[in-house]
Design a protein that fits this description.
By secondary structure, this protein is α+β, with helices and mostly antiparallel strands. The chain has helices spanning about 35-45, 50-60, 65-80, 120-130, 150-155; strands at about 80-85, 90-95, 105-110, 115-120, 145. It has a single domain (about 35-155), classed as Winged helix-like DNA-binding domain superfamily/Winged helix DNA-binding domain (Arc Repressor Mutant, subunit A, Orthogonal Bundle). The strands form 2 sheets. Strands 4-3-5 form a 3-stranded mixed sheet, with no helix packed on it.
């Protein structure tokens, strides 16, 4: 089982990265043209993508330099609209626009399907509580790897 990432802003500054497959809508923040192109690319892909794979797909829209992609991805992550999967070195669009960050990820190792797993405030507090006293937590990473139902049935 792979353990990896998710992003959440906690009052103490803890960041956890996450993705949600079941959509619900929030007021969307204003995005630059580059941010819109990259977010659209990730949503259309429907699967985790590396920054360079994103660059390959958005070149036709005039985005041609890696720093431009990374800058837009960073801004989108800060808005909670894109999440980084550390175990895959890849990015996914948040399935419900922008989120509050109380999610972990479950990732199918066969098809790369990503599902956000909602966490309660108690779950989040328990994760933060795992840090030893000599370390102030700044980031918690939770990725659960396995097989989705479809891939399990196909095996």
């Amino acid at each position: 089982m792979a353990i990896g990432v998710r992003a959440l802003m906690h009052p103490g500054g803890v960041m956890l990265y996450h993705r949600r497959m079941n959509a619900h809508h929030h007021d969307a923040p204003k995005l630059s043209r580059n941010q819109s192109e990259i977010l659209s690319c990730l949503r259309q892909a429907g699967e985790p993508m590396s920054a360079y794979a994103i660059l390959d797909r958005v070149r036709k829209s005039g985005i041609s330099h890696p720093p431009t992609v990374y800058r837009a991805l960073n801004d989108l992550m800060q808005k909670g609209m894109v999440h980084r999967l550390q175990s895959r070195s890849a990015f996914v669009a948040c399935g419900h626009g922008a989120c509050d960050g109380k999610f972990a990820f479950a990732i199918c190792r066969a098809c790369d399907k990503v599902v956000e797993v909602p966490l309660t405030d108690e779950d989040q507090a328990a994760l933060l509580g795992l840090a030893p006293d000599e370390i102030t937590p700044e980031q918690v990473t939770v990725e659960i790897g396995g097989l989705c139902e479809h891939c399990r049935d196909a095996a």
